[in-house]
Every structure is written in C-alpha cells, then in structure tokens.
Amino acid sequence: MEDFKFDPVKVKVWGELACFTRPDMKVERVSYQVMTPSAARGILSSIFWKPEFDWVIQKIQVLNPIRHISIRRNEVKSKISPGSVKQWMKKKDHDHYYADKDRTQRNTLALRDVSYIIEANVRLKKHAKNEHPAKYRK
User: What's the burial of 8, exposed, middle or buried (CB within 10 Å: 0-12/13-18/19+)?
Assistant: First the structure.
C-alpha cells in the first residue's frame, strides 16, 4: 500500500439504484454486492478530473444494508451498422427498422437504496513532477 502525505478525501455517494456489473454476467446483468474500486474512481473522476493525477481508492464504506431489486426490460438483440444508418439518411425511401421484431427480454439484478463513503488519495502522474498533491485538496 502506498504511503500518502495527506488523509484521504472522503466523498459520500448515494442513489435509488446501482448496478456494478460482474464481467461474467453481461447478458443477464448481476451487480456486485458493493461498488467496485473502478466504479469509485469513475465517480470521483466525474466530479474532479485533472490529467496530472489518478485517484487511488483507499476504502469504500457501505452505509446502507445491501438490498437487491430485479428489473426486467426489453432490449434490441442486434446493432445497426453505421453504413446502414448513413444510407438511410441519404435515401428518402428506405427499409424501416422495427425494434419489436428484434427484441428480447433481459433481467438485471441491481442494488437499491445504496449509500457509500469513498475514501481516496491523489497520485500524481510522472509528467506532473512539478505539482504538489495539496494543490488538488482545496
């Protein structure tokens, strides 16, 4: 574990629904029971991102009990190629795409009423050698 000069930044995040999809369960999505470190990095980066540093997740504290919810939804099975879309845009008469002919039902096992405290530090990148981590803690 790295030794940081400062205490970690603490950010509370919460929401009605969350899904941290397991890679082995992409079709019928099943969430990990707790937010993943990569999801925590993504959240922190969406709040405050600079090219000079990376977020290093120290701890993810779970505040609410882990509760699941099953969600069933309709998805389209296939993708339309960009070439087809370009042709459709050029032509006035074209074959229409009807999603109901290519639909399938999928299930998601998501988390509900989540709340976490993310603790993280800033790790400066090599190209930011003249920077100081305290600069990003205001």
Answer: middle
Q: Domain range holding 50?
A: 9-127
With contact defined as beta carbons under 8 Å apart, do 116 and 33 qualify? Answer: no
Provide the 10 A C-beta neighbour count for residue 41: 16
CATH number at residue 27: 3.30.70.2660
Q: How many CA atoms lie within 13 A of 131 on its CB side?
A: 16
59-73 burial by CB neighbour count: b if 16+ within 10 A, else e?
A: ebeeeeeeeeeeeee
Which of helix, strand or coil describes residue 105? strand
Count of the separate structural domains present in the chain: 1
Residue 74: inside a domain, yes or no? yes
Are 13 and 118 in contact by the 8 Å Cβ rule? The answer is: yes
Mean pLDDT of the 90-117 span: 85
pLDDT in tens, 52-62: 889 999 999 99
Is residue 132 situated within a structural domain? no
Residue 2 lies in a domain: no
pLDDT at 88: 77
